[in-house]
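Section 3.1: Structural characterization of target chains.
Under the original work plan, the team committed to producing a structural model for every single-chain target entering the pipeline before any wet-lab resources were allocated. The record below documents one such target. The sequence was received from the expression subgroup and is listed exactly as submitted; it comprises 213 residues.
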Amino acid sequence: MLQVYFIAGTQDCLHLGSKPDENLLFILEEALKDGITCFQFREKGKNCLEDKEEIFNLAKKAQELCKKYDVPFFINDDVELALKLNATGLHIGQDDKEVGEVIKQIKGKLLLGLSTNTLNQAIKANDIKGIDYFGVGPIYETTSKSDAKQSVGLDLIKSIRNENISKPLVAIGGIEEVNVNDILKSGCDGVAIISAITKSKNIEQTVVNLKGK
């Protein structure tokens, strides 16, 4: 599931023209056809949609595309939306709701991913039942997220693996086709990407390259 984990919202598709919602769905379907293994709907940051009904309707359309291609569908941060849509899962960050509260809210109905930016965060969360994977990063500097933390490099992935932390890891942040193999060799189960796909001129080839050699 974590091999090629695509994350996007309308704010990531503004460069394609005046209809970012249609642009998002177009890119998503292309990426699904070409072999992404998971999608996270992340409507967050500058220029994102604000209207809850609009967000719900767009998320539902994205979910329907994921169902068509049998690919897991995650929601970023919004517990209420994830439960309302009966999404595959939810992803939360360290600055979002407290993870224990989220686990109580979702009651085992959703898979749960947690962003980790330090070794201590990973160690602390490793034994928490209900967390299914860690998103580790940002590995490199990224412009896709306005709220991104300072980059951590590959050493954090290696340190987490050296602690015998058992949860699956997906790397995120500044990941491009040229650095995927180094990331996978460091001990990750896959890569999470935004702009590598939304700005790709050949999504099919990009997805192939993101799977590594």
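The two ends are 17 Å apart (CA to CA).
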